[in-house]
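Homework-ish question, so no full write-ups if that breaks the rules, but can someone show me the predicted structure for this set?
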Amino acid sequence: MWELIRANRRKSLVLFFIMGMFLVLLGYLIGQAFKPQGGGITGVVIAIFVWFILNMISMFSGSKIMLTVSNAKEITPDVHPRLYNIVEEMRMAANLPKTPKVYIINTEAPNAFATGRTPDDAAIAVTAGLLAKLNRDELQGVVAHETSHILNRDIRFMTYAGIMLGTIVLISELYLRTLFFSSSARYRSDSKGGGQGQLIMMVLAIVMAILAPIAAQLLYFAISRKREYLADASAVRLTRYPEGLAAALEKISGSTQDIETANKVTAPMYIVNPLKKKGMKIADLTSTHPPISERIRILRSMAGGANFTSYQQAWSTVTGSPSHIIPRSGLADNESLGFRPPASGEDIEADMKQSRRDLGNLMMAVNQYTFIDCPCGVKLKVPPDYKSLQVECPRCGRIHKVSD
Amino acid sequence: MRCPVCKNPMVILELQQIEIDYCTFCQGIWLDAGELEALLGDTQQVQDLLTSFKIDDAIREKRIKCPICNKKMHKIQAGQHNPIIIDKCRIDHGLWFDSGELQQIIEMGSLHKENEILILLKDIFTNKLK
Ligand SMILES: [Zn+2]
Ligand SMILES: [Zn+2]
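A: Not a homework solution, just the prediction itself:
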């Protein structure tokens, strides 16, 4: 397994450095466009500084920032026992030292991500919509995929790369916006300064500010795609049930809902890009390569059991590519792991009804609603910003205290 | 969810697995289309019910906004004779009853084909309707 992780990391590192070069070049061109004498160096320093600061923040506060901006709330086992059981189950299967913290994001769009620094300090976040739409087998597939990211040491590296991408996008956007808002004034009053050289620099900087985010996004996807495949393969190994993850991916990608709290920095972390409609145009660009439908087809054509070799074979068949998506060291893994049968149909049906009923309560529990069971049979659910200290049951007239 | 009339946070009441949003300050009641569906059984019946209401936009009562989509709701006539006016979301997110309107409907025995709704509402608001 260690071999596999190392090989995976080595390949990603190269792409990671190319991404870094984009950041440096972007900083140089923008700096140069603002100030032809030595502005380029300042630009580079600023760009790297911004990236560095964002990384420091994410390092020191661990996964907190990502979770906070995503509006994820940590839950205890009693809030959603089913999810917690699955996480614990997958932790044991993956032999992780500690159970990841479990977070819920209060949105109807189904999605999930993992974050953290090390396997000791990891978190898995799922949306409420995911819990409502997936049955147990499917949820297990998604949790196994995220657990694999933790196990494969992807989360830290992906956070670095994700922040680099985020920095490139932010700097580009900031530059283009400044340009847009100041352009009219600038051209009118400042036409004598600068000259031709600066104009060329400016054009180059604009081109770079438009192209760099797209290129960085593509590189990011190149890095993450391999890791996604590897996490899918590992997830099958953990669950022995490829159809669970396949069906989950199908449901997640079939949803047209956006996640309100997802932004350009956090979007790459999710199992499926959460910015579908109003997101960046870049998302369309990458969705024209059908990674999701391809991932689903690979999972469904795994025939040789739940091991890496079987995944590699399915991958080659589906993509028609002779290259190795699983590093060679992983292919030594021939251990015959049979598939397990799915949960029975009735279970799934009952499961879905139950989870739909749970969803509303779950969202409320996560959002600190107070639940009052009136002896007359009415259940009162009081929002946290309720303006009175007591509430009257309209059925029996009892007055209940709203605990604080 | 906030009360579309007085903007206070609304309490959710659950009885027999049906949830009703209730404003304890102005006594307004919001009935979600999803809950109507849970009561009446299927989507078609709910659609039939919602479309059976007569839209009466000539009424000069103050327009209130749907608490879900925030669009101004239609005024509709509920009941056959002496109909009372309740609010209905344009894209059928649900129904809004101002304070007292539920009582009026119950007294008139209107909304006749939606007895199940009335029975439940009557039950859940027993103490308020006295
Ligand atoms: Zn009561
Ligand atoms: Zn509405």
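Now go work out the reasoning yourself. Hint: Chain B has five helices and seven strands.
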